[in-house]
Amino acid sequence: MAGNPNKPCNTETTKEEKGKDSNKKKEEEKEMAPTSSSAMHRSSSRPQLDVSGAAIQGNFEERNPTILLPNQSDDISHLALDIGGSLIKLVYFSRREEQSSHDKRKRSSKQRFWISNGNRRSYPILGGRLHFVKFETGKLNECVDFISSKQLHRGGIDSPSWRSGSQTDQNIVIKATGGGAYKFADVFRERLGVSLEKEDEMDCLVAGANFLLKAIRHEAFTHMEGQKEFVQIDHNDLFPYLLVNIGSGVSMIKVDGDGKFQRVSGTNVGGGTYWGLGRLLTKCKSFDELLELSQRGDNSNIDMLVGDIYGGLDYSKIGLSASTIASSFGKTISETKELSDYRPEDISLSLLRMISYNIGQISYLNALRYGLKRIFFGGFFIRGHAYTMDTISFAVHFWSKGQAQAMFLRHEGFLGAIGAFMSYEKHGLDDLMAHQFVERFPMGAPYVGGKIHGPPLGDLNEKISWMEKFIQKGTEITAPVPMAPPGTTGVGGFERPSSKGDTLRSDASAELNIGVLHLVPSLEVFPLLADPKTYEPNTIDLSDHGELEYWFTVLSEHLPDLVDKAVASEGGTDDAKRRGDAFARAFSAHLARLMEEPAAYGKLGLANLLELREECLREFNFTDAYITIKQRENEASLAVLPDLLMELDSMNEERRLLTLIEGVLAANIFDWGSRACVDLYHKGTIIEIYRMSRKKMQRPWRTDDFDLFKKRMLGSGDQNVQPYKRALLFVDNSGADIVLGMLPLARELLRRGTEVVLVANYLPALNDVTANELPEIVAEAAKHCDILRKAAEAGGLLVDAMINIQDRQKESSDSVPLMVAENGCGSPCIDFRQVSSELAAATKDADLVILEGMGRALHTNYNARFKCDALKLAMVKNQRLAEKLVNGNIYDCVCRFEPAQEL
Ligand SMILES: Nc1ncnc2c1ncn2[C@@H]1O[C@H](COP(=O)(O)OP(=O)(O)O)[C@@H](O)[C@H]1O
Ligand SMILES: CC(C)(COP(=O)(O)O)[C@@H](O)C(=O)NCCC(=O)O
Ligand SMILES: [Mn+2]
């Protein structure tokens, strides 16, 4: 919506904060008790939902099972629209997690202990995914077809009401904003039988922007001279700011708080002007084509520059260089030239610069008028286009002499639609926090290129076919947003922005620079993080291009072997081969896209790439690629465990502790994600390699804090030490790593009176052991060891093995418990900003955290600090990482002990 200069649109729309009650987060209940009689659960109910009588639909073992709320009178809406002058924006929520065969397999496997004991796990009330899609307003029918094919107006194809046909369309109300909510209300009523409930456009823009800035990590960024930098927004220091939404027209809104704003200005020279004038002058058929043309343009053929007026000289007295634009389109006054004498490329660029500068300048003036330092730009005119953002940034920077800052939003075009979505009173999404959203790379929708009209790649077969077609066509993977190398700006700064780029990713392609937002209300920040605000999980920052290239190559080279394993894990059938092929293509396409635009989905770290690989595997129904290897290695290791325990028991406690830590480091060699290690496995049996690895454990290790740890565990001289109360052991790989490394260490802690929680992955990743697999492994190990048996019984891990419950209670009551908790992850790394509520609950009374393995202790969390003591143990199984991180070599070991961080 533009400000009309003839009729100032300066409405004083100050809205008071709505629904204060709903913002008050209910005090959450946390508990975790060691014995089987109390629960390891956390409930997180949202006040807006009537959850009385709620029942889990399906199996308790599912991660996010559908929750039926029998007493919830209204169905929760899943769709909101922003129908603008140029584009229709759709935000929709899909509640159901896709049912993977992993879940099916899990169902048949042994139940986890807290389930067996009748304890509840926490279930997200509204777990699901937020999707973002757009259509041209002129193609309203395509949008209606899309909604209809996915039944979004009825809560989605998978909603129970849709399947049972119980809902009548007449009652359905969909929130909509933008002028089209009025203009096209009839079309929606006639074609879908739904009514649109109109929400004020400015209200929605502000609500959308505030939500994004508070809840989405890496939402805002600066863009100067081709360099994108994410800005960490402090929630307590967000207001006031100027919001500039560049749609067809431009709105400028001073935002002072939630629902507190004033539309202070606007301009009618906006996105519609660029697209409309551009189309007339260049005969372009699409907005993208016009934008692409600009990238090959030279505006000095169209614009009158300072140098044109001053005979090639700078007008340095007032700080203008010769190449500064004096008058946009000033050269086209020439009487001897016609439109056809000018290159469309040059026209497009001049127009883009003219409009972007103008908006940047007016924005600055309004920021100045109200003393605002920060300006956030949204609206689809920006299109993640580097040149547009650079131009606006230059204008703001130049005119404010660096005092004001232009920032952009990744969900730029969806502010209004998100705001409309937030306006549903019932779903209570407004007080969600960043840690409850996991932004994932878009899967499902075309990976690269292709249109998303009609129902987008619903089932697996469609996804595979799409990948196959994609391969046949040999479609090139094009860059999403052009990024040229940074250049200089010259005198006065008001020069031509440097990033012009070569290619523009198709606008119709796999959406924009945003992923799919997975909403998992049960996720929490790990309570033992010393400083969650400054915590950064990744050690390796992939914005360094050299690093990105290296890890890209590592992952690409690993791919054929991974596909082999994945296909074998599914029986090597033709179907598995076809899926394996599609997985490889999809993952490669994602990697290629990230190589071109590393910040496409926010700040990129190595952990994101490793998780992406696992996500891609799951997308093509490979639920556990290393299952056979894991089982084989578990069996082989369990067979030699009794001998190892005997050997350990013959040692004095000092020698034993050292041997245990050595054992953990040595056994960490069994990592099927490391190229070098996989090559080693051809050279011997598991046990031979384990023995060889242990033999090579020469102290001092590359990082060796063992003596410090020993002092804390055993004391020194006659000084008595208190044992740790509870230790959380973040375990890594299956086989020797867990059986011969971490379990014996857990046993030592138990023997010293420390409660132990084994923390493992929720979903498989590489050969990592999962929480679901641990009870069985512990049960096997417990057959040979009384300490483990009693502790496992005390922790409720051995319920199936128990014959006489009374005897068990008597026996186990003198043992501290051994427990298992899932971490909420399906990756070889761990991001402590987002862990399961189960793990968060398990931190109660914990005073020691042990992180094991490269993924959890080196790639991530190497620099993390905790409120309690932390021990980080890993073998470095990559030469480059060893050099970079510890100035050492492959197979060096890290034993880092960090006493509790003083707060
Ligand atoms: N595929 C596209 N088709 C048309 N316009 C586009 C497209 N992509 C980006 N734009 C730009 O985005 C502007 C619309 O932005 P938007 O925020 O959706 O505003 P509105 O709500 O007014 O439609 C258009 O005027 C144009 O400049
Ligand atoms: C994926 C991994 C982090 C798993 O390591 P782990 O946590 O099991 O010790 C690691 O295998 C890795 O970084 N691999 C890639 C490096 C390489 O192949 O050299
Ligand atoms: Mn691992």
Automatic annotation (TrEMBL):
It catalyses: (R)-4'-phosphopantetheine + H2O = (R)-pantetheine + phosphate; (R)-pantothenate + ATP = (R)-4'-phosphopantothenate + ADP + H(+); (R)-4'-phosphopantothenate + H2O = (R)-pantothenate + phosphate; (R)-4'-phosphopantetheine sulfonate + H2O = (R)-pantetheine sulfonate + phosphate. Residues 13-32 have a biased composition (Basic and acidic residues). Its EC number is 2.7.1.33. Gene3D superfamilies: 3.30.420.40, 3.30.420.510, AF1104-like, Uncharacterised protein PF01937, DUF89, domain 3. GO terms for biological process: coenzyme A biosynthetic process. Pathway: Cofactor biosynthesis; coenzyme A biosynthesis; CoA from (R)-pantothenate: step 1/5. Residues 1-49 are annotated as: Disordered. Its cofactor is Mn(2+); Ni(2+). Residues 563-885 form the Damage-control phosphatase ARMT1-like metal-binding domain. The keyword Glycosyltransferase does not apply. GO terms for cellular component: cytosol; nucleus. It holds the Pfam family Fumble. Keywords: ATP-binding, Coenzyme A biosynthesis, Hydrolase, Kinase, Manganese, Metal-binding, Nickel, Nucleotide-binding, Transferase. GO terms for molecular function: ATP binding; hydrolase activity; metal ion binding; pantothenate kinase activity. It comes from the Eukaryota. Belongs to the type II pantothenate kinase family. Catalyzes the phosphorylation of pantothenate the first step in CoA biosynthesis. May play a role in the physiological regulation of the intracellular CoA concentration. Functionally redudant with PANK1. The phosphatase activity shows preference for normal or oxidatively damaged intermediates of 4'-phosphopantetheine, which provides strong indirect evidence that the phosphatase activity pre-empts damage in the CoA pathway. Hydrolyzing excess 4'-phosphopantetheine could constitute a directed overflow mechanism to prevent its oxidation to the S-sulfonate, sulfonate, or other forms. This is Pantothenate kinase 2. It comes from Asparagus officinalis. The lineage of its organism: Eukaryota, Viridiplantae, Streptophyta, Embryophyta, Tracheophyta.
